[in-house]
Every structure is written in structure tokens, then in C-alpha cells.
Amino acid sequence: MNAREKFCTVLNSGPILAPDAMVVLCGEDAMPRLKFAVGKLHEFAHWAAHQKIEDYAPPIVLTGGLNDPPAKMGAETLAPKVLAAGVAPDRLILDTAAMNTREQAVNVVALAKEHGWRRLMLVVSPYHAPRAFLTFLKAAMEADIDKALEINVATASHVPWWKAPEGCEDTRYTLLELDVDKAEIYADHVATWEDGLAYLEYWEGREEKRGK
Q1: How far is the CA of 48 from the CAs of 18, 56, 93, 117, 153, in angstroms?
Q2: What is the pairing mode between strands 72-73 and 27-28?
Q3: Best CA proximity match to 59, nearest among 18, 17, 15
Q4: Which pLDDT does position 31 carry in this prediction?
Q5: What is the third-level CATH fold of 19-206?
Q6: Least confident segment among 7-21, 64-78, 139-153
Q7: Using one digit for the tens of pLDDT, what is the confidence trace for 167-209?
């Protein structure tokens, strides 16, 4: 196996840990991501002594300003849906300035530094997970907080691979191939596969030492 194959295998099999903030990448295929995120918020509330979601939920960041429903649903379009699910307005953060994955990563890492977040849950589609994760890792490395900020990826799975997201023409399977190509095209925006493996190994060791 090469480094890319090893990284993708390890990335998609890690634990889902309670975060300091949940980050939903808006835009293409946004609704499955949002539904997954809201479901996780309810789970976290249940784990926290059966509190209601309005009483317990980590901040949820909706990042992405591209808005052309239904193909691309931006943060402003998704915000009312989050509030309707019971999330308090003061727990919702909108990033409407980001127009691509790189800008989403840079903006969210800046928010993490501002708020002192130590762990992020990055909610993405399965086909976008490797490049999105490596883009966020690159931004964290540039901000010199990759050893202080743990990024977990959570995929909005159980969606058809050979079916296109709503409003799109390409299937998720085709989008997977395109996204892997983009990791090479936008190499300056992403950490390497080797960087990704080293980062995942580092944080797994940290979790073992502190008992998660």
C-alpha cells in the first residue's frame, strides 16, 4: 500500500470523539452533512446526562458562502435548519466568506485559535474527506497549532455512491475521483499523505495517554 491508500484507510476508521466545535462544510452535498451533524448533536446531548440539545451542544460552525440551491447550499441557507433542530442561536457560527475548501480551512482554524478550541469534528461527505482533512491540517500547520488542535473527520455516510447529490450531475463515485485529482492540483493547499498519517498517529497516542 502507498501512503495515500494507508492514509485513507486510517482516516475513515478512527473514533468519533466529542468535539469543542462541530464544523459542517456547506456547498455541494450539504444536506446529508447537516442531517448527520444534527444527529450527532442529539447523541452528544444524550451522553451528557440526558440533557436536551438546547441545553448541551458544542458550537456548530457552518462554513461556506457559495449558495445556489439545491446544488450548493451555503451557510445562510442551512442556518435556519440548524435552529429548527433546537440548536441555540448563540451556539451557531456562520462563515459565509469562504468560497472554497482552502478558505474554509483557514477561516475555521482562525476561529479555533480565537475560541481556544482543542478538538474539531469536521463533517464532510465521504468522497471529500481525504482532501478536506488534509486542507484543514495544512491550515493548522501554517498557523502552528497542529500539535494543539485535534481534527476528527466524520463522514455523512449511508448515501448512494452511484447517485449524484441533489442538483449535481456527477455521482459521488465520480466526485471521489475528481477530489483525489484535486489533492494533486491544489497541492499547495493540502498537507501530504505522509503528513496526514503522522498527524493521526500523533493524536492517537495523545488520546491513549489521557484516556480520551
Answers
A1: 10, 7, 22, 19, 21
A2: antiparallel
A3: 18
A4: 95
A5: Rossmann fold (3.40.50)
A6: 7-21
A7: 999 999 999 999 999 999 999 999 999 999 999 999 998 876 6
Query: Which residue pairs from 184-192 have beta carbons closer than 8 angstroms and sit at least 24 positions apart in sequence?
Result: 186/102, 186/131, 186/135, 189/101, 189/102, 189/105, 189/135, 189/138, 190/131, 190/134, 190/135, 190/137, 190/138, 191/134, 191/135, 191/137, 191/138, 191/141, 192/3, 192/134
Instruction: Please tell me the distance from the alpha carbon of residue 197 to that of residue 191, in angstroms, as a whole number.
Output: 10
Domain ranges of the chain: 19-206
Mean pLDDT of 101-105: 98
Q: What is the DSSP letter of 94?
A: E
Bridge partners for 146 per DSSP: none
